[in-house]
Amino acid sequence: MMDMRSAVEDALDQIIDPCSAGIGKPVGLVRMGLIKELDLAMEGDAVAVRLQLRVTSPCCMMGPSFTAQAKEKLMSLPGICSVEVTISPEIDWTPGHMAPSYRATLSGPRIGYPEA
């Protein structure tokens, strides 16, 4: 099951947050900290995935796009039988949810931001 979890996380991290791309520092959903819950359960010989995403602010309009992309990416993985994706009703994302390596990346120059 750990191999499947890694495959699921890798697939989700291929979905790029467009705001991060807009500043020249593209990052996927996992490293951006947008995965709130990820549950994998065996159903017969296959795996059912239940995923809850978070968005960074109440103004973020990417929830439906992230949901559709996650379903498409995960259903294309061998061994996945179903995918349920929801968006958390709570707006609880903070920069602390980002992977430390990505926070370090953001400390460098960004498109549209003056260099220090």
From TrEMBL:
Please list the residue ranges annotated as the MIP18 family-like domain: 6-85
Gene3D superfamilies, per the entry = Fe-S cluster assembly (FSCA)
Q: InterPro entries recorded for this chain?
A: Fe-S_Maturation_MIP18, FSCA_dom_sf, MIP18-like
- The protein depicted here goes by the name DUF59 domain-containing protein
What is the source species? Aminobacter anthyllidis
Taxonomy of origin reads: Bacteria, Pseudomonadati, Pseudomonadota, Alphaproteobacteria, Hyphomicrobiales
